[in-house]
Amino acid sequence: MSNPPDPRRFGFETRMVHAGHIPDAVTGARAVPIYQTTSFVFDDAEQAAQLFELKQYGNIYTRISNPTTAVFEERLASLEGATGAVATASGMAAQLVTFLTLLQPGDEVVASSQLYGGSITQLVHTLKKFNLPVRFVNPSRLDEWEAAITPKTRALYGETIGNPRGAILDLERIAALAASHGIPLIVDNTMATPALCRPIEHGATLIVHSATKFIGGHGTALGGALLDSGKFDFSRYPTVAAPSPAYHDLRFYDTFGHYAFLMKARAETVRDTGACLSPFNSFLLIQGLETLSLRMERQTGSALRVAQFLESHAAVAWVAYAGLPSHPDHALAQKYLPKGAGAVFSFGLKKRAGEDARATGRKFIEGLQLFSHLANIGDVRSLVIHPASTTHQQLTDEELAKGGVGAELIRLSIGLENVEDLLWDLDQALLALSR
Amino acid sequence: MGPGPGVACAVTLNSALTPGQQKLYQDPLVIQRLLRDTRTIAIVGLSTDPQRASWFVASYLKKAGYRIIPVNPKATEILGEKAYPNLASIPGPVDLVDVFRPAAEATGIARDAVAIKAKSLWLQLKLVNLEAAELATRAGLTVVLDRCVKMEHGRYFGGLHFAGMNTEIVTARKAKLA
């Protein structure tokens, strides 16, 4: 037998535009076609039966799988170095599907306290309805993570770049802690995207994304995804390994091996919750993936410029951007995010004598010309928000403080505008505060 | 649907094999050639229980057009095919011997596979037996370890992609009609 040369492992940018899509054998369509259909015709009755029993791969109904969505899923899996992906209607859906697939009532989760406000709400209030208690810890304190783990703890959860103060998860140490307890580390990689950090390479087990943000990139489509490293032993997780009553006692882990968790998430959790992604949104998110590294490089570079500018501005009290040496996690950012610490960060306005911090924040936002005031991140346009009065307003004061959100905190998501224009806009809005 | 003539990389999985052993026993080009050239697959340890992994693989391979031969001393017929108690009792030629028995039994199965002049030996996912692999390789058989025939077929020629899985196939060439 002759030894053929090793197949080339294509680079990240190549996979951004090619992975998961082979031009169709009949039409040769180069762009990914939008399969805007609810359902798919069977070959025959036997194939139909085998599809429903998961004995064949194929499409039945778009709530479970769809050829356009499959391209999005495989492409994202390729970029994250995952074994596969399941797309969902939103990032919140991806997170919930992950927990509902992995956990059973009574199981506990230990989570970083520095999460997106909506995630905290879901973990605290919605998971409680499923009897899934969550303990929150300061993500920078390994001892807190360790102390919070009990024999009932079945998952650790954190964000690569925490919201909104930019805490960087020490992936390798937390992954090692999770591994020593035989539990998975779940990482929300929304803020970094695989262009800046691939947590699986640092030991993470499961990845969740809000694709609505940088992956889509253009503020046009909601979507999410969960991904599996394929490296975790689920044999101790009855939710994945035990016979499934929904599939004639099929043992997913025995049968599908490293695909078991994702098969279970798709065939049971997404099927039963209906949290599927629409094919048209998949198409829009695929368009986003095709330019992901270019946007992340530019937006992250601009974010550093803006953060440096604000840090030296007289009207600014502090800037929390892990790309700056002043950030407590700067060294971790250099380790895990060598290409940049993302394009989202927060800063605090200086307290003005005789003025409420909330009023100062409102005045600043209303003075901006180019930054869009809205509740999103990761758009090609620069965005601004005052979390205390919007995204985090449902949190109690205690939760707010624990999450590091003060009333003076302004969050920016830096877009693709000319960076000098962004500096001009911030400067004029800051100067207007003293008028 | 097929991948066309494009490049397929090895998938990063939690194989128990070292990188060197993966090169020997999990080479994507070898696996693709094997799946293309194989016609008859003897499945050692094929269960009579339709919810077992071996039954999933066998029913999939049969639907994909391979001739499957169940090897199970406790069965007479599985999936409409006559079952044999061991490899030696199969009357015709066998291309691929696919193993669903514990790894420790693989050495004996490998000897039987050599004796019936099978062309290749495949130990399913999580099954590693290097003695069996070396024995079969020395006798000229192609050997695959710690991989699933169904997953690999689904990756290169079937619908694994539709399940959102990472096939690691990257190509700008048009797919071939099945």
Could you write a compact summary of the structure shown?
Chain A is of the alpha/beta class. Chain A is built from 17 helices and 14 strands.
Blueprint of the fold:
The complex is a heterodimer of chains A (435) and B (178).
Chain A: H1 12-18, H2 45-52, H3 67-80, E1 84-88, H4 91-102, E2 108-112, H5 117-129, E3 134-137, H6 142-148, E4 153-159, H7 171-180, E5 185-188, H8 193-196, E6 206-210, E7 224-228, H9 238-241, E8 243-244, E9 250-251, H10 252-256, H11 260-273, H12 279-289, H13 292-311, E10 316-320, H14 330-336, E11 344-349, H15 357-367, E12 372-373, E13 383-385, H16 397-402, E14 409-413, H17 419-432
Parallel strand pairs in A: 2-3, 2-4, 4-5, 5-6, 12-13
Antiparallel strand pairs in A: 1-7, 6-7, 8-9, 10-11, 11-14, 13-14
Helix pairs in contact in A: 1-3, 3-12, 4-5, 4-11, 13-17, 15-17
Chain B: E1 7-8, H1 19-25, H2 28-37, E2 40-44, H3 53-63, E3 67-71, E4 77-78, E5 81-82, E6 96-99, H4 106-115, E7 120-123, H5 130-138, E8 142-144, H6 149-156, E9 169-170
Parallel strand pairs in B: 2-3, 2-6, 6-7, 7-8
Antiparallel strand pairs in B: 1-9, 4-5
Helix pairs in contact in B: 4-5
